[in-house]
Amino acid sequence: MIFHIENIKKLFTYNWPELIKSIFPNGNKGVVSEEDSKYIQDGAITRIIAVIFIRVAGIGYAFYYVLHRYVGISSSNYINGIISRTLSSNLEKWLTAIVVAAIIPIAILIINKVNKGKEKNSWTFFVILILSLYEIISLLFQAKTWIFLLISYGFFAVIALIGLAIDFFGTVSVAVGCINFCKQNGNKPVQPVQPVQPVQPVQPVQPVEMPIVESQNNFKFCSKCGAQILSTAVFCPHCGNKN
After folding, report:
1. Of 8, 23, 15, nearest in space to 185 by CA
2. Which one, of 164, 181, 41, 180, lies nearest residue 113 by Cα?
3. What is the torsional sign of CA 211, 217, 218, 220?
4. What distance in Å separates the CA atoms of residue 157 and residue 168, rounded to the nearest whole number?
5. Which of 122, 117, 133 is nearest to 188 (CA)?
6. What angle do CA 219, 221, 225 make, to 5 degrees?
7. pTM above 0.90, yes or no
């Protein structure tokens, strides 16, 4: 399904003052998500379909007008001559008009395909967004004009309105896809790279000298003065007595 009707609701529920602040490019880069890429792709295809529909319907209406006007009052050879002259004089113009009208959606389709899965800044899609929003406003004014011309142009006005509706669906999908990408990678401050702090050398652990605890078995008492002396001492250091 290439007609993402739900995007119309999204477009009219955005908080536009806040959105405008957040989508302006600021040098950040990112990758277009699969969902947004599909919105842009399907929207571009829908717009191409709308262009072909409107132009082919216009050609069909021109032939209908010729047949309706001349059938019954002119010979078949005369009618065939009018159709042949109409084709020869206008076919190139019609084909040129189709190509010219489809240039932008074809370019959007190519840009989306080339950038799929690649890290890009949001400038390209921001420009596409601006063009899409301009096109949406233009389509709304065109639709208003054709609604007023329904009585005068009848069937052809209905065809034009159908074509505008298809184009509107496609343009909205392109716009929503670009908005989502620009919001993720738009006007956000670029985080400065923090300088690497020098690593402080680790101070070696100083060995702690544990006091040697003399065992009680290493002492004895002098037999003369009673002072505590080493068990290996022959003479008492206090009184000089030989033990």
Report:
1. 23
2. 41
3. positive
4. 16
5. 122
6. 145
7. no
Each residue's pLDDT expressed in tens, for the chain with a length of 243 residues: 677 888 988 888 888 888 888 888 887 788 989 999 999 999 999 999 998 888 777 777 666 666 666 555 555 665 566 556 666 666 677 777 778 888 999 999 999 999 888 888 888 999 999 999 999 999 999 999 888 888 877 777 888 899 999 999 999 999 999 999 998 887 654 455 566 666 666 666 666 565 554 555 667 777 778 777 777 777 777 777 777
Which amino acid is it at 29?
Answer: K
Residue bearing tokens 């078995």: 217
What distances in angstroms separate CA 33 from CA 8, 36, 46, 100, 182, one per listed residue? 19, 5, 20, 30, 11
| 32, two tokens | 């277009």
Residue 242 CB neighbours (<10 A): 10
Among 82, 60, 47, which residue's Cα sits nearest to residue 172?
47
Could you tell me the sign of the dihedral formed by the alpha carbons of 181, 31, 115, 169, in that order? Answer: negative
For the CA atoms of 157, 162, 164, 170, the dihedral, rounded to the nearest 10 degrees, stands at -170
**Closest by Cα among 8, 19, 41, 36 to 181:** 36
The amino acid sitting at 14 is Y
Q: SS3 for 74?
A: strand
Beta strands in 72-177 (DSSP E): 119-121
Residue spans per domain, the chain:
6-185, 214-243
Contacts of 171 (CB under 8 A, 6+ apart): 43, 47, 132, 135, 136, 139
Tokens of 195: 């300088």
User: Does residue 181 contact residue 125 with C-beta atoms inside 8 Å?
Assistant: yes
Structural contact between residues 167 and 50, judged by C-beta atoms closer than 8 angstroms: yes
